[in-house]
Design a protein that fits this description.
With 330 residues, this protein is mainly α. It is 59% helix and 3% strand. The chain is built from 15 helices and 3 strands. The protein has a 3-stranded antiparallel beta sheet with strand order 1-3-2. Helix 9 packs antiparallel against helix 15 and helix 11 crosses helix 13.
């Protein structure tokens, strides 16, 4: 930081001496300043950072863009396994890993080289156990401006909103979902049995099943993809929209930058369409009579019980998005 302060003073002094027409000289001074700035950051991250004792790629120690580059092919699992084999069970990866990671106290925003990935199963309890003080990283702001129960970084808010999920996923509620899931499973079995063409793409059929199950259990709505044997447009932008998260996960701020720009076809448009469609589903659900036979109905009932001033559609929309995305993995 001292070096940055010195370079800033030198820059200001040099600019004061420069003739206004000396554009090239000004650019040169700017490059000197930026060179000093980035050099000081790199030196700190390599030799003075609190995580310097943990092994890992030198490039990962410098910038998150190293990890960003290596997950463009959406094969992060293979990269993490390669790092484990090379460096051991605790690796400085410069990337937030949902399975078992710890964001160092040096930064509670989940930024760059201040992160390690822990592969030891013993780490799950001290990191994820109830009552600990570990904080969620900036990655959880991915739904902004929406906030789901599982993405809020406020423990107090999380505890309040979790009650609705506990009601919708209680033993009694799950037993009520059993017949619908069983019916969907029979439809899937029948569809595969009567499919023609020899080879069956089981991945496609399971995507149909997962989406139908999400509709039935999440919103009490039938999409009938298994019965029709056809993919709806919702399934496509869910699949393509989620793919964007694969490469922006290591650099959360890049996600917010991309969304600040006009929708880019093939990049951010599918994700924005997914968010809009999910919010539309909860808006349609709000128009139906109150009931308690799907997950979203429990969330809506809890939301409706709040004082009108405390009802936030961004929270309800966030929960709808979470239900849709979770349904993708049923």
């Amino acid at each position: 930081m001292f070096l940055i302060a010195v370079l800033t003073c030198l820059l200001l002094e040099s600019l004061a001496r420069l003739n206004k027409s000396s554009c090239c000289s000004g650019i040169a001074v700017l490059f000197v300043y930026l060179g000093g700035l980035f050099s000081s950051v790199i030196i700190y991250r390599l030799f003075f950072n609190g995580l310097k004792r943990f092994p890992g790629s030198w490039w990962a120690r410098i910038s998150k863009f190293w990890h960003f580059y290596h997950v463009l092919d959406a094969k992060k699992c293979l990269l993490l396994e390669e790092l484990r084999l090379s460096y051991g069970d605790i690796v400085r990866t410069g990337e937030w890993n949902v399975m078992s990671t710890w964001t160092t106290h040096l930064s509670d925003t989940g930024t760059g080289p201040n992160e390690i990935t822990i592969y030891c199963p013993e780490a799950l309890t001290p990191v994820h156990a109830y009552g600990l003080q570990c904080k969620k990283s900036a990655w959880y702001d991915m739904l902004t401006p929406f906030t789901a129960m599982n993405t809020t970084r406020s423990k107090t808010e999380h505890d309040k909103r979790r009650r609705a999920y506990e009601s919708g996923l209680s033993v009694k509620a799950v037993q009520g979902y059993h017949n619908r899931v069983q019916r969907l499973a029979k439809d899937l079995s029948s569809a595969i049995e009567h499919s023609t063409g020899g080879t069956v793409n089981i991945t496609t059929w399971m995507q149909y099943f997962a989406f139908d199950a999400m509709g039935e259990l999440g919103f009490g709505k039938a999409f009938n993809q298994v019965k029709s044997g056809r993919s709806h447009f919702e399934t496509e932008f869910l699949r393509h929209g989620m793919s964007m998260l694969a490469w922006v996960t290591p650099v959360p701020w890049l996600y917010h930058l991309a969304l600040a720009l006009p929708a880019i076809p093939g990049l951010t448009k599918n994700w924005l369409d997914l968010l809009a469609w999910s919010v539309e589903q909860v808006e349609l659900r709000l128009r139906l009579p109150s009931r308690s036979d799907d997950i979203m109905s429990h969330i809506i009932n809890d939301w409706s019980a709040l004082d009108e001033k405390k009802r936030d559609m961004l929270h309800l929309g966030g929960d709808a998005i979470a239900v849709v995305i979770a349904g993708r993995s049923i």
